[in-house]
Amino acid sequence: MPEPTRLLSADDVRRALTRIAHEICEHHSGVSNLVLIGIQTRGVPLAESISEAIADIEHEKVFVGSLDIGLYRDDLASRPTPRLGRTLMPVDLNGRNVVLVDDVLFTGRTIRAALDALSDLGRPAAVELAVLVDRGHRQLPIRADYVGKNLPTSIDQRVTVRVEAIDGENGVWVGS
Amino acid sequence: MKHLLSISDLDRAEIEDLLTLAAEFSSVLERDIPKVPTLRGRTIATVFFEASTRTRLSFERAAKALSADVMSFAPGTSSVTKGESLKDTVLTLEATGADLFVVRHESVGAAARVAGWVNGPVINGGDGAHQHPTQALLDALTLRQRFGKLDGLKVGIVGDIANSRVARSNIDAFTKLGAQVELIAPSPLLPVDLSAFPVTVSGSLEDSLPHLDVVYLLRVQIERGSGPILPSLAEYGLRFGMNRQRLQMLPADAVVMHPGPINRGVEITADVADDPRSLVLDQVQNGVSTRMAVIFRLLGAS
Questions:
Q1: Domains in chain B, start-ordered, CATH in brackets?
Q2: B31 and A121 in contact by Cβ < 8 A?
Q3: Of A50, A129, B152, B252, which sits most exposed with the smallest number of CB within 10 A?
Protein backbone atom coordinates (compact mmCIF):
# COMPACT_ATOMS: atom_id res chain seq x y z
CA MET A 1 0.00 0.00 0.00
CA PRO A 2 1.43 3.46 -0.90
CA GLU A 3 2.20 5.96 1.86
CA PRO A 4 -0.67 8.40 2.57
CA THR A 5 -0.15 11.84 0.99
CA ARG A 6 -0.10 14.83 3.30
CA LEU A 7 -2.54 17.42 1.98
CA LEU A 8 -2.57 19.93 4.84
CA SER A 9 0.45 20.86 6.94
CA ALA A 10 0.24 22.02 10.55
CA ASP A 11 0.39 25.62 9.28
CA ASP A 12 -2.39 24.95 6.75
CA VAL A 13 -4.59 23.61 9.55
CA ARG A 14 -3.87 26.64 11.74
CA ARG A 15 -4.70 29.06 8.90
CA ALA A 16 -7.89 27.18 8.06
CA LEU A 17 -9.07 27.23 11.69
CA THR A 18 -8.19 30.92 12.01
CA ARG A 19 -10.20 31.71 8.89
CA ILE A 20 -13.16 29.70 10.22
CA ALA A 21 -12.90 31.67 13.49
CA HIS A 22 -13.07 34.94 11.50
CA GLU A 23 -16.04 33.72 9.48
CA ILE A 24 -17.92 32.70 12.62
CA CYS A 25 -17.31 36.10 14.26
CA GLU A 26 -18.32 37.94 11.10
CA HIS A 27 -21.45 35.91 10.54
CA HIS A 28 -22.64 36.31 14.12
CA SER A 29 -21.50 39.95 14.49
CA GLY A 30 -19.77 38.98 17.72
CA VAL A 31 -19.76 35.83 19.79
CA SER A 32 -21.76 36.63 22.92
CA ASN A 33 -24.44 33.95 22.50
CA LEU A 34 -22.20 31.33 20.91
CA VAL A 35 -21.24 27.80 21.98
CA LEU A 36 -18.79 25.61 20.07
CA ILE A 37 -19.50 21.91 20.43
CA GLY A 38 -16.85 19.47 19.31
CA ILE A 39 -17.92 16.01 18.20
CA GLN A 40 -15.87 13.30 19.91
CA THR A 41 -13.05 12.63 19.43
CA ARG A 42 -11.14 15.00 17.16
CA GLY A 43 -13.86 17.63 16.88
CA VAL A 44 -13.23 18.56 20.52
CA PRO A 45 -9.62 19.83 20.24
CA LEU A 46 -10.53 21.50 16.92
CA ALA A 47 -13.36 23.35 18.71
CA GLU A 48 -10.84 24.37 21.40
CA SER A 49 -8.48 25.73 18.72
CA ILE A 50 -11.27 27.72 17.06
CA SER A 51 -12.27 29.08 20.47
CA GLU A 52 -8.70 30.25 21.09
CA ALA A 53 -8.57 31.88 17.67
CA ILE A 54 -11.87 33.65 18.41
CA ALA A 55 -10.49 34.85 21.75
CA ASP A 56 -7.58 36.47 19.85
CA ILE A 57 -9.99 38.23 17.50
CA GLU A 58 -12.85 39.24 19.80
CA HIS A 59 -11.08 39.25 23.21
CA GLU A 60 -13.94 37.14 24.50
CA LYS A 61 -13.99 33.48 25.57
CA VAL A 62 -16.43 31.20 23.79
CA PHE A 63 -17.83 28.18 25.60
CA VAL A 64 -16.66 24.81 24.30
CA GLY A 65 -18.60 21.58 24.85
CA SER A 66 -18.03 18.00 23.78
CA LEU A 67 -20.61 15.70 22.28
CA ASP A 68 -20.37 11.93 21.93
CA ILE A 69 -22.77 10.54 19.37
CA GLY A 70 -22.13 6.83 20.04
CA LEU A 71 -25.62 6.31 21.47
CA TYR A 72 -27.25 7.98 18.46
CA ARG A 73 -25.56 6.09 15.62
CA ASP A 74 -27.65 4.18 13.10
CA ASP A 75 -24.96 1.57 12.48
CA LEU A 76 -24.58 0.25 16.03
CA ALA A 77 -25.13 -3.37 15.05
CA SER A 78 -22.21 -3.35 12.62
CA ARG A 79 -19.66 -1.87 15.03
CA PRO A 80 -17.84 -4.45 17.15
CA THR A 81 -17.28 -2.85 20.56
CA PRO A 82 -18.44 0.74 20.45
CA ARG A 83 -16.53 3.17 22.68
CA LEU A 84 -18.25 6.04 24.35
CA GLY A 85 -16.62 9.42 24.96
CA ARG A 86 -17.71 12.20 27.28
CA THR A 87 -20.62 14.48 26.60
CA LEU A 88 -20.02 17.73 28.50
CA MET A 89 -22.05 20.88 28.06
CA PRO A 90 -20.60 23.99 29.74
CA VAL A 91 -23.88 25.93 29.51
CA ASP A 92 -27.58 25.45 28.96
CA LEU A 93 -28.07 25.16 25.20
CA ASN A 94 -31.58 26.62 25.18
CA GLY A 95 -31.61 29.74 23.03
CA ARG A 96 -27.89 29.59 22.19
CA ASN A 97 -26.26 29.69 18.78
CA VAL A 98 -24.42 26.39 18.48
CA VAL A 99 -21.61 25.63 16.08
CA LEU A 100 -20.93 21.91 15.80
CA VAL A 101 -17.29 21.16 15.03
CA ASP A 102 -15.98 17.96 13.45
CA ASP A 103 -12.82 16.92 11.66
CA VAL A 104 -14.18 15.34 8.45
CA LEU A 105 -17.58 15.72 6.81
CA PHE A 106 -18.26 12.57 4.77
CA THR A 107 -21.64 10.77 4.55
CA GLY A 108 -23.35 13.20 6.96
CA ARG A 109 -24.52 10.38 9.23
CA THR A 110 -22.38 11.54 12.14
CA ILE A 111 -23.88 15.02 11.87
CA ARG A 112 -27.41 13.57 11.68
CA ALA A 113 -26.67 11.68 14.91
CA ALA A 114 -25.15 14.81 16.48
CA LEU A 115 -28.30 16.82 15.69
CA ASP A 116 -30.43 14.13 17.36
CA ALA A 117 -28.13 14.14 20.39
CA LEU A 118 -28.27 17.94 20.59
CA SER A 119 -32.06 18.01 20.54
CA ASP A 120 -32.09 15.71 23.59
CA LEU A 121 -29.85 18.17 25.43
CA GLY A 122 -31.79 21.35 24.77
CA ARG A 123 -33.25 23.63 22.11
CA PRO A 124 -30.60 25.89 20.60
CA ALA A 125 -31.71 29.02 18.71
CA ALA A 126 -29.69 27.86 15.70
CA VAL A 127 -27.19 25.13 14.85
CA GLU A 128 -24.36 25.51 12.33
CA LEU A 129 -21.60 23.17 11.26
CA ALA A 130 -17.86 23.76 10.96
CA VAL A 131 -15.53 21.05 9.59
CA LEU A 132 -11.82 20.99 8.90
CA VAL A 133 -12.27 18.84 5.77
CA ASP A 134 -15.27 18.25 3.51
CA ARG A 135 -14.52 15.17 1.44
CA GLY A 136 -17.91 14.84 -0.32
CA HIS A 137 -20.02 11.67 -0.79
CA ARG A 138 -22.99 12.81 1.28
CA GLN A 139 -25.74 10.28 1.94
CA LEU A 140 -28.01 12.79 3.70
CA PRO A 141 -29.10 16.39 2.93
CA ILE A 142 -26.45 17.98 5.17
CA ARG A 143 -23.89 20.70 4.39
CA ALA A 144 -21.28 22.59 6.37
CA ASP A 145 -21.49 26.34 7.07
CA TYR A 146 -17.73 26.68 7.59
CA VAL A 147 -15.21 24.48 5.73
CA GLY A 148 -11.44 24.42 6.26
CA LYS A 149 -10.68 22.62 3.01
CA ASN A 150 -12.80 20.96 0.32
CA LEU A 151 -11.07 17.70 -0.63
CA PRO A 152 -12.52 15.83 -3.61
CA THR A 153 -11.91 12.15 -2.83
CA SER A 154 -13.00 8.81 -4.19
CA ILE A 155 -15.30 6.93 -1.85
CA ASP A 156 -12.79 4.21 -0.93
CA GLN A 157 -9.96 6.62 -0.07
CA ARG A 158 -9.07 7.12 3.57
CA VAL A 159 -8.84 10.65 4.98
CA THR A 160 -6.87 10.94 8.22
CA VAL A 161 -6.93 14.04 10.40
CA ARG A 162 -4.34 14.24 13.16
CA VAL A 163 -4.60 16.85 15.91
CA GLU A 164 -1.96 17.94 18.38
CA ALA A 165 -3.91 17.19 21.58
CA ILE A 166 -4.57 13.55 20.60
CA ASP A 167 -2.01 12.55 17.96
CA GLY A 168 0.88 14.90 18.77
CA GLU A 169 0.73 16.81 15.46
CA ASN A 170 -1.69 18.70 13.21
CA GLY A 171 -2.29 17.72 9.60
CA VAL A 172 -4.49 16.00 7.04
CA TRP A 173 -3.52 12.95 4.99
CA VAL A 174 -5.20 11.03 2.18
CA GLY A 175 -4.38 7.41 1.49
CA SER A 176 -5.85 4.75 -0.74
CA MET B 1 -18.99 -10.87 25.61
CA LYS B 2 -21.91 -12.91 24.26
CA HIS B 3 -23.85 -13.39 27.53
CA LEU B 4 -23.48 -12.19 31.12
CA LEU B 5 -23.95 -15.33 33.19
CA SER B 6 -21.28 -15.06 35.88
CA ILE B 7 -18.64 -12.59 37.02
CA SER B 8 -16.16 -15.45 36.62
CA ASP B 9 -16.55 -15.08 32.81
CA LEU B 10 -15.14 -11.53 32.98
CA ASP B 11 -11.59 -10.36 33.48
CA ARG B 12 -10.62 -7.13 35.21
CA ALA B 13 -10.44 -5.13 31.97
CA GLU B 14 -13.93 -6.22 30.92
CA ILE B 15 -15.35 -5.33 34.33
CA GLU B 16 -13.69 -1.91 34.23
CA ASP B 17 -14.97 -1.31 30.70
CA LEU B 18 -18.53 -1.97 31.91
CA LEU B 19 -18.08 0.33 34.94
CA THR B 20 -16.75 3.15 32.78
CA LEU B 21 -19.64 2.71 30.39
CA ALA B 22 -22.08 2.64 33.32
CA ALA B 23 -20.67 5.92 34.65
CA GLU B 24 -21.30 7.47 31.22
CA PHE B 25 -24.90 6.20 31.32
CA SER B 26 -25.32 7.72 34.79
CA SER B 27 -24.81 11.11 33.17
CA VAL B 28 -27.44 10.25 30.53
CA LEU B 29 -29.88 9.51 33.36
CA GLU B 30 -29.21 12.94 34.88
CA ARG B 31 -30.26 14.82 31.74
CA ASP B 32 -33.60 16.57 31.31
CA ILE B 33 -34.46 13.90 28.75
CA PRO B 34 -32.96 10.77 30.35
CA LYS B 35 -33.33 8.62 27.27
CA VAL B 36 -31.24 7.84 24.19
CA PRO B 37 -32.42 6.19 20.95
CA THR B 38 -29.63 3.61 20.85
CA LEU B 39 -31.66 0.39 20.94
CA ARG B 40 -34.78 1.56 19.16
CA GLY B 41 -36.56 -1.42 17.68
CA ARG B 42 -34.88 -3.99 19.96
CA THR B 43 -36.90 -5.98 22.46
CA ILE B 44 -35.78 -7.15 25.87
CA ALA B 45 -37.59 -9.93 27.71
CA THR B 46 -37.45 -10.08 31.48
CA VAL B 47 -38.12 -13.66 32.54
CA PHE B 48 -38.41 -13.71 36.32
CA PHE B 49 -39.41 -17.02 37.87
CA GLU B 50 -38.54 -15.60 41.30
CA ALA B 51 -39.90 -12.52 43.03
CA SER B 52 -38.02 -9.29 42.49
CA THR B 53 -38.67 -5.60 42.93
CA ARG B 54 -35.52 -3.66 42.22
CA THR B 55 -33.77 -5.98 39.78
CA ARG B 56 -36.75 -6.20 37.47
CA LEU B 57 -37.64 -2.51 37.77
CA SER B 58 -34.05 -1.59 37.20
CA PHE B 59 -33.68 -3.75 34.07
CA GLU B 60 -36.92 -2.39 32.65
CA ARG B 61 -35.90 1.21 33.34
CA ALA B 62 -32.49 0.52 31.78
CA ALA B 63 -34.03 -1.00 28.65
CA LYS B 64 -36.45 1.90 28.27
CA ALA B 65 -33.75 4.53 28.78
CA LEU B 66 -32.02 2.93 25.78
CA SER B 67 -35.33 3.06 23.84
CA ALA B 68 -35.69 -0.73 23.71
CA ASP B 69 -39.10 -2.32 24.15
CA VAL B 70 -39.72 -4.59 27.12
CA MET B 71 -41.67 -7.84 27.36
CA SER B 72 -42.28 -8.84 30.93
CA PHE B 73 -42.86 -12.41 31.89
CA ALA B 74 -44.11 -13.53 35.30
CA PRO B 75 -44.96 -17.18 36.00
CA GLY B 76 -47.98 -16.45 38.17
CA THR B 77 -50.03 -15.11 35.26
CA SER B 78 -48.58 -17.31 32.52
CA SER B 79 -48.91 -20.77 31.05
CA VAL B 80 -46.24 -21.98 33.49
CA THR B 81 -49.20 -22.55 35.76
CA LYS B 82 -50.38 -24.96 33.03
CA GLY B 83 -47.03 -26.76 33.16
CA GLU B 84 -45.13 -24.98 30.36
CA SER B 85 -41.40 -25.49 30.83
CA LEU B 86 -38.64 -22.86 31.09
CA LYS B 87 -37.40 -23.94 27.66
CA ASP B 88 -40.78 -23.58 25.94
CA THR B 89 -41.31 -20.26 27.71
CA VAL B 90 -38.10 -18.66 26.46
CA LEU B 91 -38.47 -20.13 22.96
CA THR B 92 -41.96 -18.64 22.83
CA LEU B 93 -40.58 -15.27 23.90
CA GLU B 94 -37.87 -15.46 21.25
CA ALA B 95 -40.43 -16.38 18.58
CA THR B 96 -42.48 -13.38 19.72
CA GLY B 97 -39.51 -11.12 19.02
CA ALA B 98 -37.27 -10.93 22.10
CA ASP B 99 -33.66 -10.00 21.24
CA LEU B 100 -32.19 -10.31 24.74
CA PHE B 101 -33.26 -12.24 27.83
CA VAL B 102 -32.90 -11.36 31.48
CA VAL B 103 -33.46 -14.55 33.44
CA ARG B 104 -34.01 -15.03 37.15
CA HIS B 105 -34.70 -18.52 38.43
CA GLU B 106 -34.39 -20.41 41.68
CA SER B 107 -32.25 -23.14 40.05
CA VAL B 108 -28.49 -22.78 39.77
CA GLY B 109 -27.45 -22.60 36.11
CA ALA B 110 -30.90 -21.68 34.77
CA ALA B 111 -29.64 -18.65 32.84
CA ALA B 112 -26.82 -20.72 31.34
CA ARG B 113 -29.35 -23.32 30.18
CA VAL B 114 -31.41 -20.59 28.55
CA ALA B 115 -28.27 -19.32 26.80
CA GLY B 116 -27.98 -22.73 25.17
CA TRP B 117 -31.54 -22.63 23.85
CA VAL B 118 -31.97 -19.12 22.44
CA ASN B 119 -30.02 -17.21 19.80
CA GLY B 120 -29.93 -13.86 21.60
CA PRO B 121 -27.76 -12.81 24.53
CA VAL B 122 -28.78 -13.80 28.06
CA ILE B 123 -28.21 -11.86 31.27
CA ASN B 124 -28.31 -13.80 34.51
CA GLY B 125 -30.60 -11.86 36.85
CA GLY B 126 -29.91 -14.32 39.66
CA ASP B 127 -29.80 -18.12 39.65
CA GLY B 128 -30.40 -19.80 42.99
CA ALA B 129 -27.48 -19.33 45.38
CA HIS B 130 -25.02 -19.16 42.47
CA GLN B 131 -24.55 -15.76 40.78
CA HIS B 132 -26.09 -12.30 40.41
CA PRO B 133 -23.52 -10.57 38.22
CA THR B 134 -25.26 -7.22 37.62
CA GLN B 135 -25.57 -6.76 41.39
CA ALA B 136 -21.80 -7.22 41.74
CA LEU B 137 -21.16 -4.73 38.92
CA LEU B 138 -23.45 -2.06 40.38
CA ASP B 139 -21.85 -2.53 43.80
CA ALA B 140 -18.38 -2.20 42.28
CA LEU B 141 -19.54 0.98 40.49
CA THR B 142 -20.91 2.38 43.76
CA LEU B 143 -17.56 1.75 45.49
CA ARG B 144 -15.58 3.17 42.57
CA GLN B 145 -17.68 6.35 42.71
CA ARG B 146 -17.06 6.72 46.45
CA PHE B 147 -13.40 5.68 46.70
CA GLY B 148 -12.07 6.20 43.14
CA LYS B 149 -10.87 2.62 42.91
CA LEU B 150 -11.26 -0.71 44.70
CA ASP B 151 -7.56 -1.55 44.94
CA GLY B 152 -6.62 -2.06 48.57
CA LEU B 153 -10.15 -1.55 49.94
CA LYS B 154 -11.06 -3.84 52.82
CA VAL B 155 -14.58 -5.11 52.33
CA GLY B 156 -16.38 -7.13 54.99
CA ILE B 157 -19.26 -9.21 53.60
CA VAL B 158 -21.56 -10.03 56.49
CA GLY B 159 -24.21 -12.69 56.89
CA ASP B 160 -25.68 -15.58 55.00
CA ILE B 161 -22.71 -16.31 52.72
CA ALA B 162 -23.70 -19.94 52.09
CA ASN B 163 -27.08 -19.11 50.57
CA SER B 164 -26.10 -15.89 48.85
CA ARG B 165 -25.59 -15.44 45.12
CA VAL B 166 -24.75 -11.80 45.85
CA ALA B 167 -21.84 -12.92 48.04
CA ARG B 168 -20.47 -15.22 45.33
CA SER B 169 -20.65 -12.60 42.57
CA ASN B 170 -19.36 -9.80 44.77
CA ILE B 171 -16.40 -11.74 46.17
CA ASP B 172 -15.37 -12.44 42.60
CA ALA B 173 -15.85 -8.89 41.31
CA PHE B 174 -14.32 -7.12 44.33
CA THR B 175 -11.20 -9.31 44.46
CA LYS B 176 -10.69 -9.04 40.67
CA LEU B 177 -10.70 -5.25 41.11
CA GLY B 178 -8.07 -5.44 43.85
CA ALA B 179 -10.12 -5.30 47.06
CA GLN B 180 -9.52 -7.59 50.04
CA VAL B 181 -12.61 -9.43 51.17
CA GLU B 182 -13.36 -10.69 54.67
CA LEU B 183 -16.36 -12.94 55.22
CA ILE B 184 -18.06 -12.28 58.54
CA ALA B 185 -20.67 -14.82 59.59
CA PRO B 186 -21.67 -17.40 62.16
CA SER B 187 -20.22 -20.72 61.03
CA PRO B 188 -23.57 -22.31 59.99
CA LEU B 189 -23.95 -19.55 57.40
CA LEU B 190 -20.50 -20.08 55.83
CA PRO B 191 -20.00 -22.44 52.86
CA VAL B 192 -18.57 -25.82 53.93
CA ASP B 193 -15.55 -25.46 51.67
CA LEU B 194 -14.00 -21.98 51.50
CA SER B 195 -10.79 -23.01 49.73
CA ALA B 196 -12.06 -21.69 46.36
CA PHE B 197 -12.54 -18.15 47.70
CA PRO B 198 -9.59 -15.73 48.00
CA VAL B 199 -10.89 -14.36 51.31
CA THR B 200 -10.29 -14.24 55.04
CA VAL B 201 -12.93 -15.26 57.57
CA SER B 202 -14.07 -13.72 60.82
CA GLY B 203 -16.67 -14.86 63.33
CA SER B 204 -17.10 -11.48 64.98
CA LEU B 205 -18.46 -8.35 63.33
CA GLU B 206 -17.26 -6.12 66.16
CA ASP B 207 -13.67 -7.40 65.89
CA SER B 208 -13.62 -6.67 62.15
CA LEU B 209 -15.29 -3.25 62.08
CA PRO B 210 -12.24 -1.09 63.01
CA HIS B 211 -10.24 -2.24 59.97
CA LEU B 212 -12.98 -2.22 57.30
CA ASP B 213 -13.59 0.39 54.59
CA VAL B 214 -16.86 -1.20 53.57
CA VAL B 215 -19.43 -3.23 55.51
CA TYR B 216 -21.56 -5.15 53.04
CA LEU B 217 -24.56 -6.65 54.80
CA LEU B 218 -26.28 -9.54 53.08
CA ARG B 219 -29.98 -10.07 53.33
CA VAL B 220 -31.01 -12.88 55.65
CA GLN B 221 -32.63 -15.23 53.14
CA ILE B 222 -35.62 -16.16 55.20
CA GLU B 223 -37.24 -17.60 52.07
CA ARG B 224 -34.19 -19.65 51.12
CA GLY B 225 -33.76 -21.72 54.23
CA SER B 226 -31.48 -19.80 56.56
CA GLY B 227 -34.44 -19.36 58.89
CA PRO B 228 -34.24 -22.78 60.51
CA ILE B 229 -30.42 -22.62 60.79
CA LEU B 230 -30.55 -19.41 62.82
CA PRO B 231 -31.95 -19.65 66.33
CA SER B 232 -33.75 -16.32 65.90
CA LEU B 233 -33.63 -13.24 63.71
CA ALA B 234 -33.39 -11.06 66.80
CA GLU B 235 -30.29 -12.87 67.98
CA TYR B 236 -28.74 -12.63 64.51
CA GLY B 237 -29.35 -8.89 64.59
CA LEU B 238 -27.69 -8.62 68.01
CA ARG B 239 -24.48 -10.29 66.80
CA PHE B 240 -24.30 -9.43 63.07
CA GLY B 241 -26.58 -6.43 62.54
CA MET B 242 -25.34 -2.88 61.96
CA ASN B 243 -26.63 -0.37 64.46
CA ARG B 244 -25.69 3.16 65.52
CA GLN B 245 -23.15 1.94 68.07
CA ARG B 246 -21.34 -0.33 65.60
CA LEU B 247 -21.36 2.42 62.96
CA GLN B 248 -19.15 4.40 65.34
CA MET B 249 -16.66 1.50 65.52
CA LEU B 250 -15.91 1.88 61.79
CA PRO B 251 -13.16 4.17 60.45
CA ALA B 252 -14.52 7.67 59.75
CA ASP B 253 -14.77 7.34 55.95
CA ALA B 254 -16.09 3.77 55.86
CA VAL B 255 -19.45 3.03 54.26
CA VAL B 256 -22.33 0.59 54.68
CA MET B 257 -23.98 -1.30 51.81
CA HIS B 258 -26.90 -3.70 51.43
CA PRO B 259 -28.31 -5.25 48.23
CA GLY B 260 -31.92 -4.96 49.44
CA PRO B 261 -34.58 -5.70 50.27
CA ILE B 262 -33.60 -4.82 53.84
CA ASN B 263 -35.04 -6.62 56.83
CA ARG B 264 -34.97 -3.45 58.92
CA GLY B 265 -33.88 -4.16 62.44
CA VAL B 266 -32.24 -7.45 61.45
CA GLU B 267 -29.23 -6.80 59.16
CA ILE B 268 -29.36 -3.06 59.65
CA THR B 269 -31.29 -0.71 61.92
CA ALA B 270 -33.50 1.98 60.40
CA ASP B 271 -31.25 4.86 61.50
CA VAL B 272 -28.14 3.25 59.94
CA ALA B 273 -30.00 2.55 56.67
CA ASP B 274 -30.84 6.25 56.45
CA ASP B 275 -27.40 7.49 57.58
CA PRO B 276 -25.28 9.45 55.05
CA ARG B 277 -22.70 6.67 55.28
CA SER B 278 -25.22 4.17 53.95
CA LEU B 279 -24.90 3.76 50.16
CA VAL B 280 -28.10 1.74 49.79
CA LEU B 281 -29.87 4.26 47.56
CA ASP B 282 -26.71 4.88 45.49
CA GLN B 283 -26.69 1.14 44.84
CA VAL B 284 -30.26 1.21 43.57
CA GLN B 285 -29.53 4.23 41.37
CA ASN B 286 -26.40 2.66 39.94
CA GLY B 287 -28.40 -0.46 39.16
CA VAL B 288 -30.06 1.29 36.24
CA SER B 289 -26.89 2.67 34.63
CA THR B 290 -25.01 -0.61 35.20
CA ARG B 291 -27.74 -2.60 33.48
CA MET B 292 -27.79 -0.08 30.61
CA ALA B 293 -24.07 -0.73 30.17
CA VAL B 294 -24.51 -4.50 30.13
CA ILE B 295 -27.47 -4.41 27.72
CA PHE B 296 -25.61 -1.95 25.47
CA ARG B 297 -22.51 -4.14 25.34
CA LEU B 298 -24.49 -7.30 24.61
CA LEU B 299 -26.79 -5.83 21.95
CA GLY B 300 -24.39 -3.22 20.57
CA ALA B 301 -21.86 -5.89 19.73
CA SER B 302 -24.14 -8.36 17.98
A1: 7-131+284-300 (3.40.50.1370), 133-278 (3.40.50.1370)
A2: yes
A3: B252
Which structural domain range is residue A52 located in?
5-73+86-175
Q: Rounded CA gap, B272 and B262, in Å?
A: 12
Contact assignment for A121 to B21 by CB distance below 8 Å = no
For residue B62, the chain A residues in CB contact (below 8 A) are none
Neighbours of A176 (CB within 10 A): 11
Q: How far apart are the first and last CA of chain A?
A: 8
Domains in chain A, number: 1
ipTM for the complex?
0.77
Per-residue pLDDT tens digits for A44-59: 999 999 999 999 999 9
Tell me if B103 sits within 8 A of B123, measured CB to CB.
Answer: yes
| pLDDT score, position B302 | 41
pLDDT digits (tens, 9 = 90+) for A86-142: 888 999 999 999 999 999 999 999 999 999 999 999 999 999 999 999 999 999 999
Q: For B301, which of A68, A81, A120 is closest by C-beta distance?
A: A81
